[in-house]
Amino acid sequence: DAKTTQPPSMDCAEGRAANLPCNHSTISGNEYVYWYRQIHSQGPQYIIHGLKNNETNEMASLIITEDRKSSTLILPHATLRDTAVYYCIVRVNFGNEKLTFGTGTRLTIIP
Amino acid sequence: GAVVSQHPSRVICKSGTSVKIECRSLDFQATTMFWYRQFPKKSLMLMATSNEGSKATYEQGVEKDKFLINHASLTLSTLTVTSAHPEDSSFYICSARDHRGSGGAGYEQYFGPGTRLTVT
Known about the structure:
A: mainly beta, five-stranded mixed β-sheet, B: mainly beta, 12 strands, 0% helix, 53% strand
């Protein structure tokens, strides 16, 4: 699986949009971009994933650049409960199904 | 969404004893479950992949005789830490993949809440 690079930490004001970047310059054509988050002392929570088109669900939006070398997770209206470590992972969807977690971005929502 | 439970959520045991952790998929069937370990302030590290009805596949450096994995049904996998030592104290997390998937677009894994093991 391709390696990802994320900033170690970010702050965002409550109520504002949180934009979390991820670089995955060595992503292969059949690799998807997945986002998970882990709130302190809990198991990771799936957020969203995509291949090349932008995706949106009830939790977040995922913007993938045209060359697929980077992506941005957007939490449109951040709340205090969004404080967590956010992991960007790229992987194929069949064959090797392992998730390889990097160090992620520690997002702190400021009241 | 799919729910994965773990039991117990927290356990304290004495050095040299064995501890069993259960991972259950509550509303879906999981042919594949994964076991992770997470030390304080560190990321999750995959320990092994558990396949229903067959032997688990362990990651490099993980002792299969120490961390026994059994995946006897489509909704249950167990991890037994044998002869536990203080260095085995960690946060153990399982995940499960819905065996139905959704073609190439839905192989997301669902994680349990984790089990905090403390070995004294």
